[in-house]
Write a structure and sequence with these properties.
The chain is α+β, with helices and mostly antiparallel strands. Helix content is 37%, strand content 23%.
């Protein structure tokens, strides 16, 4: 059983913006065949939706491990996570404060993240930055899993 699980689905505006593939393909193929343009647009839209859905990473904390997309780390090798819920602070973390060695699992349509320091001396990655819509919950789940015997603080 997992302590935390979230799939980073695209925001609704991404689905709506993808609809523009239909009139774009109609416009390109109209001189050849309007029905072909409509069919092509619908196929492109379905393909875009499928690609966005299939590539949406899962963030999960379970059994003392953090899984972000295809990467996984034992929480014994992590420090205390920091929730970054403010869009401006998120922009700074991904811009001026970003270390080029950091591991990133981010999505542009999610405006909050969690910074997880890596304490393993053998790992050159200083920290992970993980997009999440619920940064406080993810940080708390990581802390609980890192210290399962600790008393919860309310």
């Amino acid at each position: 059983m997992s302590d935390y699980r979230e799939r980073m689905w695209p925001s609704p505006w991404i689905w709506v913006a993808s609809l523009l593939l239909i009139p774009a393909s109609m416009l390109v193929l109209a001189p050849v065949s309007l029905p072909a343009g409509i069919v092509t647009g619908i196929v492109l839209y379905a393909g875009a939706l499928g690609a966005l859905s299939l590539t949406a990473p899962v963030i999960e904390v379970a059994d003392g491990r953090l899984r972000a997309g295809r990467a996984e780390i034992d929480l014994a090798h992590t420090g205390s996570p920091v929730a970054v819920a403010d869009a401006e602070a998120t922009r700074a973390e991904l811009g001026l404060r970003l270390d080029a060695r950091a591991f990133l699992v981010i999505r542009g349509w999610i405006k909050s993240l969690v910074r997880i320091p890596i304490t393993d001396a053998a790992d050159p990655t200083p920290y992970w930055l993980v997009s999440t819509r619920r940064p406080d919950e993810l940080a708390a789940a990581i802390d609980r899993s890192r210290r399962p015997d600790a008393e919860p603080t309310e």
